[in-house]
Design goal:
Distance between the termini: 64 Å
Strand content: 25-35%
Radius of gyration: 23 Å
Number of helices: 14
Length: 449
C-alpha cells in the first residue's frame, strides 16, 4: 500500500530539517527519510564535533603563546577525555532530532530511499508518494583514483578515534586536512599534508594561505606541494604513501592516512534516473528556484544541489528556507550567494567572504585593496597572536566591499561583520562611522577599511 504525503524530505541534516519543519508547520503532511542516524553531517560527523576538537587545539595554542607572559605551564590534550567530551554533543542528536520531528507531526522513516517514478519512493518494503520530494542527502568523500585507496581513513572516522596515532598523513589540501592537521599537531602527532597542486585551500586568498602555511610549518606540520599521490601501501607496522613531485618519487611513512581530498554529492543510490531527475557529477541539476529542471515535483538543497553556493551548512539552511517558501506558497524565491562567509578552523583561523583580489580584478572592478599585517595591533599583540592579517577589496566606484579576507585568532567572528556589509550593501563610509565597544576585535574594523 502506498502512503501519500504532501512533502517528502530525503535527508535529516540542517538543510532537510529546515524544509521538513517549515512545511509541517504550514499543515502539509510531511515525511523525512534517512539511511543513517538522524541529524546529518554537520551535527554528527562534521562541523560541530570538529569544532569541539579545534577549540581544544586553540586553547593549546593560546597557552603556548603566553608562556613567560603570565602563563606558567603549557597545557596538553588528553585525547580520550576530549573524545568523550565531543561525544556528549553528538550522541544525543539522533534521538533528539527524531523526537523533534515526531513532535512537529512529521512521519519518520529509516532506510535508503530510491525513486520508482517521478513522485514515488521505495524505502525497504514501504512505498511513499510525494507531491513534492526534496533531496537533501548531502555529500560524501570523493573517490580518489589511487592504488590502495581502501587504506584511507575518512573524516568521520578521524572524529571517532579512541587514540590519536603518532604519525598522520592527510591526502589533499582542503578544509579537512588543514583543520585536522592543526588538531593532530597540537595533540602531539607528526602531521603531513600532501597537496597535488601549487596552492592548498584554493578558494581562499593566496596571501592569507601563504601565512597559514608558514604557521603550519612552524608548529611542525609538513606540507608537500605539487605532490600527486599514486599509491597507499600497508605493511605490518605502518602505511606508506607514495607520491610524485615532478620527476621525484616521494615516500611518506605514517600510522594513519586520512582522506582530505574533497567531497561529492551523495546521489549514487537514489536511482534518480527512474525518477526522471537530471544530475551530473556536481549534483542535481536545478533551476534558480532549486527545483529539478527535469522533474517539477523534485527540489534539491545543500551539498547535493548543483548551484553556485558553497558546500556550507548555512548555505544549505538558507536554501531549505527558500524551498519551503516555494513549496508552501508556490513562490519563486531565489538564493543569493553573494558574500557568504567561510572559515577554516585551523589556528590561526582563515576566513573569507566575497571575491578574492584576483576575482575582483578579473571581473574588471576598479578596486582599492587594503592589505595589512595587523599582528602588532593590540587585539593580537597582547596575546602574541601571530600571524594576523587582513585584505579588504573595495569597489572605488560604489564604495562597497567586494571581498574580505582575514587570518588570525579572531577571524571566525570578524568575518561575519564583513559578510553582513557585503550582503546588505553597506558602504565603507557608514562602517567607518559605527561606534564599537573597545577593546574588541570588531573595534579594529574602521582601521581595516
Amino acid at each position: 500500500m502506498t502512503e501519500k504525503f504532501d512533502v517528502i524530505v530525503i535527508g535529516t541534516g540542517p538543510a532537510g530539517s529546515s524544509v521538513a519543519t517549515s512545511c509541517a508547520q504550514e499543515g502539509l503532511r510531511t515525511a523525512v527519510i534517512d539511511e543513517r542516524a538522524y541529524g546529518g553531517t554537520c551535527p554528527l560527523r562534521g562541523c560541530n564535533p570538529k569544532k569541539v576538537l579545534a577549540s581544544a587545539a586553540t586553547m593549546i595554542d593560546e597557552t603556548e603563546r603566553m608562556q613567560g607572559k603570565g602563563i606558567a605551564k603549557p597545557a596538553t590534550i588528553n585525547w580520550q577525555d576530549l573524545m568523550e567530551f565531543k561525544r556528549s554533543f553528538t550522541e544525543p542528536v539522533p534521538e533528539a532530532k527524531e523526537k523533534s520531528f515526531e513532535k512537529a507531526g512529521i512521519e519518520t522513516f529509516h532506510g535508503q530511499a530510491q525513486f520508482l517514478d517521478e513522485k514515488t519512493l521505495k524505502i525497504k518494503e514501504k512505498v511513499l508518494e510525494g507531491e513534492k520530494i526534496v533531496i537533501a542527502t548531502g555529500a560524501r568523500p570523493a573517490p580518489l583514483p589511487v592504488d590502495g585507496a581502501d587504506h584511507l581513513t575518512y573524516s568521520e572516522d578521524f572524529l571517532e578515534l579512541d587514540q590519536l596515532p603518532k604519525r598522520v598523513i592527510f591526502v589533499g589540501g582542503g578544509y579537512i586536512s588543514f583543520e585536522f592537521a592543526h588538531i593532530a599537531a597540537r595533540a602531539g602527532s607528526d602531521a603531513h599534508i600532501v597537496q597535488r597542486g601549487e596552492q592548498p585551500l584554493k578558494s581562499f586568498d593566496s596571501d592569507m594561505v601563504d601565512l597559514l602555511q608558514k604557521k603550519s610549518k612552524e608548529i611542525g606540520i609538513s606540507i608537500h606541494l605539487n605532490s600527486s599521490v599514486n599509491a597507499i601501501e600497508k605493511s605490518d607496522k605502518e602505511y606508506i604513501v607514495k607520491a610524485s613531485k615532478g620527476d621525484e618519487e616521494v615516500s611518506l611513512h605514517g600510522d594513519l592516512v586520512v582522506h582530505g581530498g574533497g567531497r561529492v554529492p551523495q546521489i549514487d543510490d537514489l536511482k534518480l534516473d527512474q525518477g526522471g531527475v537530471n544530475h551530473s557529477k556536481t549534483g542535481i541539476t536545478v533551476n534558480t528556484y532549486l527545483q529539478s529542471v527535469s522533474n517539477e515535483h523534485v527540489y534539491a538543497v545543500g551539498d547535493v544541489a548543483d548551484t553556485n553556493g558553497s558546500p556550507l551548512t548555512p548555505v544549505g539552511e538558507m536554501e531549505g528556507k527558500i524551498v519551503s517558501q516555494n513549496i508552501v506558497s508556490n513562490a519563486k524565491q531565489e538564493a543569493n550567494y553573494n558574500g557568504i562567509p567561510s572559515v577554516v578552523y585551523s589556528e590561526p583561523k582563515l576566513a573569507k567572504a566575497g571575491l578574492t583580489e584576483k576575482e575582483a580584478r578579473e571581473a574588471n572592478y576598479d578596486v582599492k585593496v587594503n592589505h595589512q599585517d595587523i599582528s602588532d595591533w593590540f587585539t593580537y599583540s597582547h596575546t602574541n597572536d601571530a600571524p594576523a592579517a587582513v585584505k579588504i577589496i573595495i569597489d572605488k566606484k560604489t564604495d562597497l566591499i567586494l571581498g574580505a579576507h582575514l587570518i588570525g585568532g579572531k577571524s571566525d567572528e570578524l568575518i561575519n561583520y564583513f559578510a553582513m556589509a557585503i550582503q546588505m550593501s553597506i558602504p565603507v563610509d557608514k562602517l567607518k562611522n559605527v561606534v564599537n565597544a573597545f577593546p574588541t576585535a570588531v573595534s579594529d574594523i574602521p582601521s581595516m577599511l
